[in-house]
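pasting for the record
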Amino acid sequence: MDDDESSASIEIRVERITQLFDTLDPFPVPQRDLANNIEDYVVGWARELPAQQSIKIVVHLPSAEATDQTTKQLGDAFSAFFRERAKRSRLNLKELFRVGRWSLLIGLTVLAVCLALGQFIGRLFGQGFLGQFSNESLILLAWVANWRPIEIFLYDWLPLLRRRNLYRRLSAAIVIVKAF
């Protein structure tokens, strides 16, 4: 199978190679961060590509810039940058699950206390309005206390996992420099 058929291209055109990198980052090219607009552009396009398809990043530069020694390091720079982003996403996912576990522990504790307190108040006031009002209010409080852990474990982790996987794909992307 032809490489062009098995991978999708993300095309970037810049006038100077320095436009690809964050101007505040003092490190040499292979360790420099990509400029925010370049990162957003590449990630935005990569997000649209099928998950199974490999990615090729084609950087179009003027002839004078394309022969620069720095262009030979572009592949390493892109790879290192997105590898670091994938690592950060993995750490964010771990942190989210840690917060989720603590939130769940707190939520379940509040649920147990509210149910026990509801039983106690029910016995104290009976099935009248005050007893039922108190019991329903405590049950509502208990479920509100569990809202965040439920949200974390059902929904919040998936976008972080997808982003981490996207960064991993981008770290494996082939970077090609073409002169114009």
